[in-house]
Amino acid sequence: MSTQKNFEEPSYLEYKGKYKGIFSWILSTDHKRIAILYLFSLLTFFAIGATLGLLMKLELIAPGKTIMTAQTYNAFFTLHGIIMIFAVVIPGLPAVFGNFLLPIMIGAKDVAFPRLNLLSWYFYVTGVTLVLISQFTGQGPPDTGWTFYAPYSFRTTGNMLPAVFGAFVLGFSSILTGLNFLVTIHRMRAPGMTWLKMPLFPWTLYATGWVQLLATPIIGITLLMIIAERTLHIGFFDPTLGGDPLLYQHLFWTYSHPAVYIMILPAMGAISEIIPTFCHKTIFGYKFIVASSIAIAFVGYFIWGHHMFTSGMSGTAEYIFSLLTFIVAIPSAIKVFNWIATMHKASIDLQTPFYWAVGFLFVFMIGGFSGLILGSLATDIHLHNTHFVVAHFHFIVFGGTGFAFFGAMHYWFPKITGKMYDSRWANTGLIIFFAGFITLYGEMFFLGMKGMPRRYYDYDEIFHTGNIFSSLGAIVMYFGLAVIIINLISSLRNGAKAPSDPWGGKTLEWTIPSPPPVENFEEIPVITKGPYNYK
Amino acid sequence: MSTILVTHRDDLASKTGMWLFLFTEMLLFGGLFIVYSVYRYRNPVAFHLAAQELSVFIGTINTIILLISSTTIAMSITAIQKNNKKLALLLLGITVILGLAFLVNKYFEWGEHIKEHIYPGSSILALRGHGDVLFYGLYFFMTGLHALHIIIGLVFILVIATSILRDKINSENYVLLENSGLYWHLVDLIWIFLFPLFYLIT
Predict the structure, then answer these.
(1) A183, A225, A251 member nearest B20 (Cβ)
(2) B90 vs chain A: nearest CA distance in angstroms?
(3) Closest residue, chain B, to A116 (C-alpha)
(4) d(Cα A317, Cα A320) in Å, to the nearest integer?
């Protein structure tokens, strides 16, 4: 937009509604304020989870007991897992950037159910609070790992009930967010915005919404069964009562594998927004990206068995799960080709969000290829339950979703806050973070191939050198994160005022002022062109 | 400024949201149906014999009660469409009474089992073998979860009834009543599956 219109309306940051002070935030039903609530709570939990991770890496810097006992280490990786999975990467992009941008990108004033949206945030905070309560009450913190595998989860003396119920409540929050987005996308697109004129971030949120809706209830009921097993001794998964612990694993991964697509799909959506903007070019193969998002969501339901190749399954089941695992890699690869083709012959504006997107591509591909190594039956037998799995998982989930999250944060920061950040410090932070990341997790691939098992606080002397590298990487990465976050926070105060379209983006959020006015649009726009129209 | 954020109404959106929510409920019970089928497949004889001990009579009565209650709530929607507030409230009242009757039956049914020391964790039940433990474990858990849904549905209907009293729900705006009807039908539908699984297949 060439001339910025003089809006009568105050921005969402100024307009407080009926309440004052903190209540103007925690009782607001404005999707933008709820997104900020999510952002701050999520970053707090992320800081807790990252600190636990750092402490675990410090424990592993030398064999034997370094700074904590075996039991503390077990409690730490359990809490690190629960917080990072259920409270950070699953809600991550949808709850923060989805909430803020989905209505704006499709030309709506809010989500379909604003009050339900606020309720989801309350569920979210309640869930995490329950998980944290489990640490300080009862007979010691949970020590099962975030997977709550039966039968240990109902035999351990650790305080499982609040943690398991907390995860259940977090699932509820996720379902309600997904439901809200699905209805919003179906009912509230601006006039003229046909399905194939919708930007890609909303498209991936749409695919994610279906996974949240159709997969999360399975973990809900499974966690309820664990609770019933602990309190009533029903026997669902208890072999002494005739139950089958393997059935728990099946039910658990029936949700938890699709859950990784809840994490990665919106990340792919954010990357699909960043790349065309900084290439000043229409995205290559828009329809293929749309179709591959839906394909990932669909095929993602049928591959949970690859988490259980060593648990005991029929050979036929293993072949099928392995084959399907390879098939799900195809739509992800299609996306990578599309992103790279978009960059081809483009005049690229090298800004911080674009660097994050490139970093994403790099780590996502390493994570993806190592996933195929784990998805093939023979190599999985060797690598199962080693640090190789930990490395793969962190490359995909922290590398994929985390990089996309920080990329999205640097991309939409001017829109959300109305301030520009210092890009030199942002780039410095990224470089430090990236170097730490590769040292920390890259080394784990080698440790895993040499046979270092996961989930132990101790290891054999032959793994020592690798672990020193890995732990030093953790310190560097933690420091890089601090630089990134501090830079963004100080930009809130000192940053220059952001124009409505600092990057030359073409989607709807760049047509309104930064920060957006309360009702987003003065007039609901009428859409006539596709989302990335750079002609 | 005070007119900012005018809430706008979209009944189709509300109903779509409700349908999506019902999908999640079906999948919630779907997980249990899978567990049921696995253990039934592994313990065919024990499940067969244990199912014969349940009272088909009470089960049938409860099925009829729920089916009638689904009819009455559907009729109350038609009544409100025709602006007949009294009839709508009466029909909702009947629905609530039928729902309570279902719970009372369930209470006596459960009471009988518990008197015979058949409940999860009972050492007497454990002596009867794994198949019986699993059958009754699933029976109590699934009918219990279903009963919880009945209670939630009843609360939902009572809230709707007060909104009708205060004319918040009327012939112009009755989507909330429709949604509570949808929820109640789902609770009914799940029972239609639970009833044969536990009482009839012997």
Answers:
(1) A183
(2) 30
(3) B17
(4) 5
Query: Residue A107: which of A30, A187, A36, A177 has the closest Cα?
Result: A187
**What is the per-residue pLDDT across A452-488, written as a single tens digit (0 to 9) for each?**
999 999 999 999 999 999 999 999 999 999 999 999 9
Place of tokens 């159910």: A113
Interchain CB distance below 8 Å, A222 and B31:
yes
Q: What does the alpha-carbon distance between residue B109 and residue B195 come to, in Å, rounded to a whole number?
A: 14
- Which tokens in the block code for residue A504? 């030359």
How many whole angstroms from its chain centre is CA A45?
Answer: 13
Residue type (1 letter), A110: D
Are B35 and B175 within 8 A, CB to CB? no
- Judge contact between A188 and A108, C-beta under 8 A: yes
ipTM for the complex shown: 0.93
> How many Å apart are CA A478 and CA A467, to the nearest integer?
16
**Residue B73: alpha-carbon gap to chain centroid:** 13
How high is the pLDDT of residue A1? 38
Which of A112, A221, A228 comes nearest B31 by C-beta? A221
Nearest CA among A410, A313, A394, A300 for reference residue A358: A410
Which residues contact residue A199 at a Cβ distance below 8 angstroms, ignoring those fewer than 6 apart? A105, A106, A273, A507, A508, A531, A532
Taking each helix axis from N to C end, the angle separating A245-279 and A352-375, rounded to the nearest 10 degrees, works out to 150
| DSSP code at position B135 | H
- Cβ–Cβ of A251/B31 closer than 8 Å? yes
Write out pLDDT tens, residues B97-147. Answer: 999 999 999 999 999 999 999 999 888 888 999 999 999 999 999 999 999
The minimal CB distance from B120 to the residues A179, A216, A233 is found for A233
The domain segmentation of chain A, as residue ranges, is 26-511
Note the residue count of chain B: 202
Mean of pLDDT values over A44-55: 97
What dihedral do alpha carbons A107, A112, A113, A119 form, nearest 10°?
Answer: -60
Q: How far apart are CA A199 and CA A271, in angstroms?
A: 12
Domain ranges of chain B: 20-200
Superfamily grouping for domain A26-511: Cytochrome c oxidase-like, subunit I domain (1.20.210.10)
Helix (H) or strand (E) holding A457: none
Q: Are A82 and A131 in contact (CB under 8 A)?
A: yes
CB atoms A241 and B133 under 8 Å:
yes
Question: What is the CATH number that goes with domain B20-200?
Answer: 1.20.120.80
Q: Hey, what are A410's tokens? A: 């640097």
- What residues of chain A lie within 8 A of the CB of B45, using their CB? none
Chain A positions in Cβ-Cβ contact with residue B25 (cut-off 8 Å): 217
Flag if B17 and A247 touch (Cβ within 8 Å).
Answer: no
Q: What residues are paired with A386 via a beta bridge?
A: A453
| Chain position carrying tokens 């999860």 | B120
With the CA atoms of B131, B136, B138 and B143 taken in that order, what torsion angle do they form, in degrees rounded to the nearest 10?
A: 160
Which residue in A has a C-alpha nearest to residue B38's C-alpha? A247
Summarised one tens digit per residue, pLDDT across range A420-436 is: 999 999 999 999 999 99
Nearest to A112 among B13, B28, B30 (CB): B13
Residues B187/B149, Cβ–Cβ less than 8 Å:
yes
* Under 8 Å between Cβ of B51 and B135: yes
* A522 contacts A7 by C-beta, under 8 angstroms: yes
Residue count of chain A, please give it. 535
B132, two tokens: 């019986």
